[in-house]
């Protein structure tokens, strides 16, 4: 089972990716992991990507596509498939990946889309607070600390990421709508998309997501 998991910032992709990985024994891979591994390893593709990132430029789709394919094809333990997070981000990437993997065991089987309305995404992102000391994450709306601004676990001061504000979220969602929503529409035409209403709590969403993947 090979899966792409997609969703807007704050949709819970990271949280549910971890659960899917454990439940179905899949390789969970993010494009960030792939880039870091190639750059740190000094591979040819990594060096090509580094030449762009060091200048603050976007890495061309061709390099990203080849990096993803190479990484997946060299997995030592293929387990029961892969769960890929953060790719494809554009329609060109989706079509290129389809061509590169056609007829191989790397072809994607289904697309999971975590669907959350804008109002809920705003609450999740703007309400997020993090503890730099122990890494615990809170939300002032849905999971507030017992004492405002203080971590329950270690007593350290909670902080908010600079881009966890409504203005930054609107920018990120605009990019998502422009680049990623056409990818989802492309796969919907192929009947490969399973949309999950990810508005409610993790405990309520997980059984629905698990059943959808088990079908």
Shape: globular
Order of helices and strands: EHEHHHEHEHEEEHHEH
Unreliable stretches: none
Q: Care to count the β-strands? A: 8
CATH fold-type name: Rossmann fold
- CATH superfamily (homologous) name: P-loop containing nucleotide triphosphate hydrolases
The number of distinct helices, counting runs of at least 4 residues, comes to 9
- Summed over residues and divided by their number, the pLDDT gives a mean of 92
Give the CATH class: Alpha Beta
Distance between the termini: 11 Å
Question: How many strands, which pairing sense, and closed or not: the largest β-sheet?
Answer: 5 strands, parallel
Q: What's the structural domain tally?
A: 1
- Give the strand content: 15-25%
Q: Helix/strand-derived class? A: alpha/beta
CATH architectural category: 3-Layer(aba) Sandwich
Percent helix among the residues?
40-55%
The oligomerization state is single chain
List keywords for this structure.
AMP kinase activity, alpha/beta, Adenylate kinase, P-loop_NTPase, single chain, five-stranded parallel sheet, kinase, globular, Rossmann fold, three-stranded antiparallel sheet, transferase, 215 residues
Give a short summary of the structure:
The protein has helices spanning 13-24, 31-41, 44-53, 61-73, 91-101, 118-126, 166-179, 181-189, 202-214; strands spanning 3-7, 27-30, 82-85, 110-115, 128-131, 137-139, 158-159, 193-197. With 215 residues, the chain is an alpha/beta fold. It has one domain: 3-Layer(aba) Sandwich (Rossmann fold), CATH 3.40.50.300.
